[in-house]
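Q: Got a minute? One more chain.
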Amino acid sequence: VENLSKNNDYKIKLFDSFSHQLITPLNGALSPLNTVIKCKNLPENLKSVLKYSKHSLILLENLINSVIDY
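A: Always. Here it is, folded:
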């Protein structure tokens, strides 16, 4: 039973570390992307591509968060 508990603790720590390693760079990409999208002199075709990229990153963030919450 003690080994099982240690094993579970290890898995939880590994999972926490792994999820943090995914979320941190994701937020690092979303934040500047939001700033660039707000630029008024940004060409519309470029803004459209950046918004699509933002949407994809948000979907990935939601997927990661749902796995973390599970």
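A: The two ends are 24 Å apart (CA to CA).
Q: Perfect, thanks.
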